[in-house]
Amino acid sequence: MIVxxxxxxxxxxxxxxxxxxxxxxxxxxxxxxxxxxVVDGGSRDATPALARAAGARVLASARGRAxxxxxxxxxxxGDWIVFLHADTRLPEGWSEALAGVADDPxxxxxxxxxxxxxxxxxxxxxxxxxxxxNALFRLxxxxxxxxxxxxxxxxxxxxxxxxxxxxxxxxxxxxSHGRLALLALPATTSGRRYAQGRGLRTILLHQWALLGWLxxxxxxxxxxxxxx
Length: 228
Prior knowledge:
The protein is α/β, with parallel strands linked by helices. The chain has helices at about 15-25, 45-55, 65-75, 95-100, 120-135, 150-155, 165-175, 200-215, 220-225, and strands at about 5-10, 35-40, 55-60, 80-85, 90, 105-115, 145-150, 180-190.
């Protein structure tokens, strides 16, 4: 089994080298079957060079996470594709856990658990809410490292080229083609978007965006409201 990890980037020089290196190391016995593709959206720093030096294949793209994910997946060689944010780390044993999921022919894709790297009550509360959301609605977000069978993604027509909330579209596509697996192993992500007093505002904006997605609101207006 070949697994391709697709990482969209924009000015992530502080993180990308260590992230790519961790993916190569954590491949374990499946190391030779792990492909890392970094799709850069026009970084002004050394992100592409650092990613390449760490062992990733680097592609240049117009800015836009959905567009970058789409390009990376179209160039992937993997049987499974993992969409990973540049500020998120996969857990030790991630490739073995994914191999176990791959043995189930009814599983179309899934996501890892969720953990924030920062300390503090706010971050633990956010983690609790994510667990409740996943338990009740089975609706993981992109910061949980969504993974999908290549054939399922192709049947969906690839990653939707939308200005925002492409992760929820991917989850909906997975669920329409088979079982969605929610792994207990947590991906650890940065809580930087909640920092500097923006925690409550960010949470409310996320819930407003989710409601807009459920109700079919215009994605361009949603993206503008969220500053994307």
